[in-house]
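Q&A FORM
Asked by: J.P.
Topic: structure of pPIWI-RE three-gene island domain-containing protein

PROVIDED:
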Amino acid sequence: MLKAQPILSLCHSECKKLFEVELVIALHELIAANSSSFQSAPFPLADTWSLLTGYVTPELNDDPKFIQSALIVRCRCNYIRTRTAWNHILDWYKTLPEVVRGYRLFPDGSYTRISSPYVPQRTSVIADALHNIPIVKNLTFGSLRLVRSISFTMVVNMSV
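REPLIED BY: S.T.
REPLY: Here is the structure written out as tokens.
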């Protein structure tokens, strides 16, 4: 007899929140791996929201590459604007089944990237979103404008 397999279906806004959390964590990961100020004084994941404020924090080292990535992430993240919003969305992210998430978060604030059988292209999508300014041609005026959102949808089979 076949058992019904539980399916987790995330609505559009939940997919967007998932993407935004992982994009901000990827920004933290990028800067932590390449910034000398991160090496001397670790910057907690809980404070990463501050990179999205538009201010050039010491963690960015006045490095144009980091500043651009932070601004791109800021542009793409609609749900994360304050410390409260960041803490709330991190708490929500922790409630998701680990098979859906791209990162394992630990109580001490550290994290590790994990591979998920769902959305296998997730890493490349996030890397692309982190480094490339989203541009859309406005047909009315023929000019370029920055787009504030990205979307993807996933339905997860929890039996794997």
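FOLLOW-UP: Residues 7-157 form one domain.
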